[in-house]
């Protein structure tokens, strides 16, 4: 996670590998990583048209998989971790 923080602090280039790492940590309880680095970087890439169709597909597929992993969990707050992908 420390390596990801360092990478995101230096205006990284878009890559499938980096997007996958970001998606693995998008539900992190570390607010700096989640809000200031991951969400901000994704927003920058979107606003500046740096994401390809393939990148969007990767993000959407990963988000849907993560969200559905937590559906149906009884007596647990894990659904909120899955839904955090959409905020």
Q: How is this structure best described in words?
A:
The protein has 87 residues and is mainly alpha-helical. Helices cover 66% and strands 0% of the residues. The chain contains 5 helices and no strands. The chain has helices spanning 2-8, 16-25, 31-47, 53-69, 78-83. The two termini are 20 Å apart.
SSE pattern, N- to C-terminal? HHHHH
Provide the low-confidence segments as ranges.
none
Helix content: 55-70%
Mean pLDDT: 84
Number of helices: 5
Radius of gyration (CA) equals 13 Å
Proportion of β residues?
under 5%
- Profile the largest sheet: none
Compute the separation of the termini in Å.
20 Å
User: How many strand elements?
Assistant: 0
- Which geometry do the CA atoms define? globular
Structural class of the secondary elements?
Answer: mainly alpha
What's the arrangement of secondary structure elements?
Layout: H1 2-8, H2 16-25, H3 31-47, H4 53-69, H5 78-83
Helix pairs in contact: 2-4
Summed up, what is this model?
The chain has 87 residues and is mainly alpha-helical.
Descriptors:
single chain; 87 residues
């Amino acid at each position: 996670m420390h390596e990801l923080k360092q990478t995101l602090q230096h205006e990284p280039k878009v890559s499938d590998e980096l997007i996958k790492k970001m998606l693995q940590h998008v539900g992190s309880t570390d607010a700096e990583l989640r809000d200031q680095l991951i969400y901000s970087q994704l927003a920058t890439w979107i606003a500046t048209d740096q994401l390809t169709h393939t990148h969007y597909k990767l993000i959407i597929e990963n988000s849907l998989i993560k969200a559905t992993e937590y559906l149906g969990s009884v007596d647990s707050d894990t659904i909120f971790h899955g839904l955090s992908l959409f905020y």
